[in-house]
Specification:
Length: about 550
């Protein structure tokens, strides 16, 4: 699991160490220079003679970068430090100079309190950076205010962004965070320099995990500088396969299909059966005990308010589901969790009635439920966190507008966490906001950000598969969810991980269909369980034999 902490939490973890004279900056710089050496070796074999341009802001982030530059210069790297503000970290500047680094400034008399640093232009600095092996971005760290670098630093970032990227261009290594991101909220509004690698100190920062800023972080390497963050509350978490293995319901010898969880599904319409097929099929393939697919009451044969027949013939929609997945059971019955709404057309009155009946039943029984697509508009004003909403950005904006918040899709995309959190506050539900990086907000302040799938996953029906996976998980862990509704957010994040990984597995590096993602689920779950669940399953198996 990758955990992240806000700037304020990191600062308060630093304080006692700094007061005790612990050389945090030296530790950070040493680790940073080690990462740059690794990049240089991978890129060109030799370190000596490599060119590194260090971008230096006014604060300690620039100090880290300058000290790392000094260490690199001592290894024979040609280091050019470009200071971008009226002041620069004095100790770092002195170290870089005495190690033989060249120092220039974008600000006349800048960087060095007017001690005669040669000035350069934004164009010249950008040109030097473009010709370097590595650009070390030490413009802004956790002390950045607002999003986007301003002033000369901002101008340089803009110029670097204009430089066309090529495979021969420099590797950009961000110091602590890519300069200019919203460190705590993941916003990415102004001038931000995207990195290939971010070397972050003490613990990751939320903006490295949260969309849209996470797209600027590249690979994230967390460096231990001795901060004690164990007792501090993380802001955002990202699950790894081993975390998902620990969450996944694995059967043992005593398991039977009902004990493993039965999932009720209301999805699709007779006109659009695809969502029903994909959602119910994904739940089966993710390993649920049983799927009950709920068809509509046969028109004209049942009075409003009557119970549905326990085993109606189900009509063409159920026939389509059964043709694809004969394992599915059609009809009403006891379930441990629900998936409601994928592909349900609100203009189909019979389907909408079935949906609202099931939604009412799920909410009044307190059962875990995935509320997706067509069901989002039917959500009661308040529900518990065992209900998971799974909107994409447009659907979340609509849900918020329906609750009096004037929000457009673009605003949700610019600040996914803020809006997902708002929807959680307003509805009480756990919210899984789909996108390139999926954000989950749940009970007790839980926040997850999962970036597991390829962009190929943005394909019709993909969300229906995700809903089925999550439904299977909720059905399988319904007992634990009843005891701890906070678990729902972790399960939602786990579903997003498996969904994304299944897309990679379905066709590595190429296009996928939603059906192919669903078909890849059994192998994906097996691979994820292999992270530590192989051992777990073996233990469960042994226990079962006793
Ligand atoms: N504490 C420690 O010992 C350790 C800290 N560590 C390192 O320190 C980093 C934090 O350092 P920090 O606090 O000095 O903040 P940092 O981000 O470098 O600069 C902030 C300055 O930039 C300016 N500025 C602000 N916003 C701006 C904008 N949008 N656009 C342009 N300029 C802007 C503003 O200056 P002003 O403009 O007001 O003069 C502000 O004062 C941290 O990320 C890590 O790398 C590690 O060494 C581990 C030990
Ligand atoms: N650029 C992207 N990269 C990776 N995953 C994406 C991207 N865009 C969307 N996704 C994922 O694809 C799925 C799309 O779901 P959704 O919008 O509900 O599609 P549909 O309604 O067609 O099923 C979500 O799980 C989302 O997280
Ligand atoms: K930085």
């Amino acid at each position: 699991m990758l955990l992240s902490w806000t700037s304020a939490v990191v600062r308060s973890a630093e304080e006692p160490l700094l007061a005790a004279g612990v050389p945090l900056m030296e530790r950070a710089a040493f680790a940073l220079h080690g990462q740059v050496l690794r990049v240089l070796r991978a890129r060109r074999g030799r370190v000596r003679g490599a060119r590194v341009v260090v971008l230096v802001g006014s604060g300690n982030n620039g100090g880290d970068a300058l000290h790392a530059g000094a260490l690199l210069a001592r290894r024979g790297v040609q280091v050019t430090a470009v200071t971008c503000a009226a002041r620069a970290h004095a100790g770092g500047l002195a170290a870089a100079r005495s190690a033989g680094a060249r120092v220039v400034s974008l600000v006349a008399g800048g960087g060095d309190g007017g001690r005669g640093v040669p000035t350069t232009t934004v164009e010249a600095a950008a040109g030097a950076a473009a010709g370097a092996d590595v650009v070390l971005d030490g413009l802004l760290g956790i002390g950045a205010s607002g999003t986007g670098a301003r002033g000369p630093a901002g101008a340089l970032v803009e110029a670097l962004r204009q430089t066309p990227r090529s495979p021969h261009g420099p590797v950009v290594v961000a110091v602590d965070v890519p300069s200019g991101i919203g460190v705590d909220d993941g916003t990415c509004g102004g001038a931000v320099l995207p990195a290939d690698l971010t070397v972050t100190f003490g613990g990751a920062k939320p903006g490295l995990l949260l969309p849209p800023a996470d797209a600027c972080a590249g690979d994230v390497v967390v460096v231990d500088i001795g901060l004690d963050l164990a007792a501090a509350r993380p802001a955002v978490a990202r699950l790894a396969p081993e975390d998902v293995a620990a969450l996944w319901p694995v059967p043992d010898r005593h398991s039977h299909k009902y004990a493993r969880g039965v999932l009720g599904v209301v999805a699709g319409t007779p006109r659009y059966p695809g969502a029903a097929v994909l959602c119910a099929g994904a739940a089966v393939l993710a390993g649920v005990g049983m799927v009950r697919f709920v068809p509509d009451a046969p028109t004209g044969r049942v009075d409003p308010g009557d119970e549905l027949p326990p085993h109606g013939d189900g009509g063409p929609l159920a026939a389509a589901v059964l043709a694809a997945r004969p394992e599915v059971v059609v009809g009403q019955g006891r379930v441990q969790a629900w998936v409601l709404g994928p592909g349900v057309d609100p203009h189909d009155h019979a389907r909408r009635r079935t949906l609202t009946d099931a939604l009412d039943a799920a909410v009044s029984d307190g059962l875990p439920a995935v509320v997706d697509a067509g069901a989002l508009d039917q959500l009661p004003p308040r529900v518990g966190p065992q209900v998971v909403l799974t909107p994409h950005a447009g659907e979340l904006a609509r849900l918020l507008r329906a609750r009096g918040e004037p929000v457009e899709r673009a605003q949700v995309e610019a600040e996914p966490l803020r809006h997902a959190r708002r929807a959680h506050e307003l509805t009480g539900a756990t919210v899984l906001l789909k996108g390139p990086t999926t954000v989950v907000v749940g009970a007790g302040g839980a926040v997850y950000a999962q970036a597991d799938g390829p962009a190929w996953l943005a394909t019709a029906g993909s969300g229906d598969v995700l809903a089925g996976i999550l439904g299977a998980l909720l059905a399988g862990r319904s007992q634990e969810v009843a005891d701890d509704p906070g678990l729902v957010a972790a399960l939602a994040a786990a579903a997003a991980l498996v969904h994304g990984r299944a897309a990679h597995l379905a066709n590595p590096g190429g296009p996928v269909t939603a059906s192919a993602v669903a078909e890849a689920l059994p192998a994906t779950v097996a691979a994820v369980l292999g992270a530590n669940g192989g051992a777990r399953a073996a233990v469960a198996e042994r226990r079962g034999r006793r």
